[in-house]
Amino acid sequence: MNAKQKTRHILDVLADMFPDAHCELNHSNPFELTIAVLLSAQCTDETVNKVTASLFQKYKKPEDYLNVPQEELEQDIRRIGLFRNKAANIQKLCRILLEKYDGEVPREHSMLTELPGVGRKTANVVVSNAFGVPAIAVDTHVERVSKRLGLAKADDSVLEVEKKLMKLVPQEEWTLTHHRLIFFGRYHCKAASPKCDICPLLDLCKEGQRRMKPAAARKTTSKKQKIAK
């Protein structure tokens, strides 16, 4: 099959496996989502949700984050990795939102990436989930799965992976594909212990086939030993 057919097959399998894939960061508005994604860098969504459960009760709007010393905000998010740097970025971000955007999160991708602590991935998550703009955010799961399934090359940069996915996946499916790739990587095709033995995409995954060879060899050896007995 060609690249488009292969991609369609992968998308259809992912749809069957994770029909309800969605953003797992708890939030109720674009501002909370932006803060949550900023906090999620090098941290699990599960941990972020535990922290934001109380954080979003205390801080409702940008002004609230600026009405406390940075040290207090640091203590509120100290369970998050790089909490000092993230606290500083949150306050800088809130100050810019108030000064330039009337306290509202901008809808434009280029404006989002100018905010402290907001990179391309974060901006993609915000525009797609908060504003309904099709986008593919490439996090560690999306990158790993895309390379294992041959949708991107092993040495491709994150930006190159994003561009290749945007070319292969129909635009109206970008956001949903992003979520399904994350679910596939988070719950099935894990970094250290992927479920290769029950994977419906094993035939497309060289990494999985390589991992399965030792298991197949062990089974063959075991059968020979039984026959010998």
From TrEMBL:
EC numbers, comma separated: 4.2.99.18
BP GO annotations: base-excision repair, AP site formation
Enzyme class: lyase
InterPro entries referenced in this protein's UniProt entry, alphabetically: DNA_glycosylase, Endonuclease-III-like_CS2, Endonuclease3_FeS-loop_motif, Endouclease-III_FeS-bd_BS, HhH-GPD_domain, HhH_base_excis_C, HhH_motif, Nth
Domain HhH-GPD: 39-187
Keywords, ordered alphabetically: 4Fe-4S, DNA damage, DNA repair, DNA-binding, Endonuclease, Glycosidase, Hydrolase, Iron, Iron-sulfur, Lyase, Metal-binding, Nuclease
Cofactor binding summary note: Binds 1 [4Fe-4S] cluster.
Signal peptide stretch: none
GO molecular function: 4 iron, 4 sulfur cluster binding; class I DNA-(apurinic or apyrimidinic site) endonuclease activity; DNA binding; DNA N-glycosylase activity; metal ion binding
Family: Belongs to the Nth/MutY family.
Xref: NCBIfam families: nth
PANTHER family, per database record: A/G-SPECIFIC ADENINE GLYCOSYLASE/ENDONUCLEASE III, ENDONUCLEASE III
Name recorded for this polypeptide: Endonuclease III
Record organism: Paenibacillus beijingensis
